[in-house]
Amino acid sequence: MTAPLTPPPPPSDPSPHQAWQAPPPYGAGGPGSLYEQDGPGMKTELREAAVITVAVALGGLLLGVLWWWLAPHVPLVGDVVEKRWIVYLKDTEGEQAVGVDGTFALLGLAFGVVSAVVVFLLRRRGGVPLVVALGVGGLLGSLLAWRVGVWLGPAQDVLAHAKSVGKGVTFSAPLKLGAKGALLAWSLGALLVHLGLTGLFGPRDPEVPAYGAGPYGAKPQA
């Protein structure tokens, strides 16, 4: 009699049908899993957004000083007509008033670019609270800059100013923002630049394989 033949061992290299495994459930897999949630929680993002809003808004102090320093002066002249003081523009065809608004808008755009770059470098992942903080902070900063510039500028009472300098003497008009749309320049510049930086240099989410995909990207055959 002969001994029964032993069955051959199973192949060491499993077939694609045997190698297929279902992906782990959402949130499983331990550290480094494709499904692991990264980034801070919502409370942390809200705290960061509040800090960014305050920091950006306080930048309006510097913007107001620069606006007061760089904006062109609108020349006025006082005169006495029938024992009454009147004030009129010295240069009726001048564009100084337009330059005042343009200076504020350009400075606002520059501050928006700087704030967006700084925030992106500090917090690359971004998030909705951070974007809202940039927009709100830029608007608050513009409002603060407007009031600071007006406060630092020439006196608001032009008749009293004309009387103090004398008849026919040129003096500067109060700093005034005629185009209120310039208040949005900071926020718009910050949002556009931050959006561009996030799209170009922001972190990318890892590609998650489709459910049921095999080791070679294909579903196992039945």
From TrEMBL:
What are the boundaries of the region Disordered? 1-39
UniProt keywords, alphabetically: Membrane, Transmembrane, Transmembrane helix
Q: What is this protein called?
A: AAA family ATPase
Give me the stretches of Pro residues compositional bias: 1-14
Q: Please give the organism.
A: Streptomyces justiciae
Whether Lipid biosynthesis counts among this entry's keywords is no
- What domain of life does the UniProt record list for this protein's source? Bacteria
Q: What is the lineage of its organism?
A: Bacteria, Bacillati, Actinomycetota, Actinomycetes, Kitasatosporales
Ranges that cross the membrane: 49-70, 104-122, 129-149, 183-202
Question: Looking at the keywords, is Membrane present?
Answer: yes
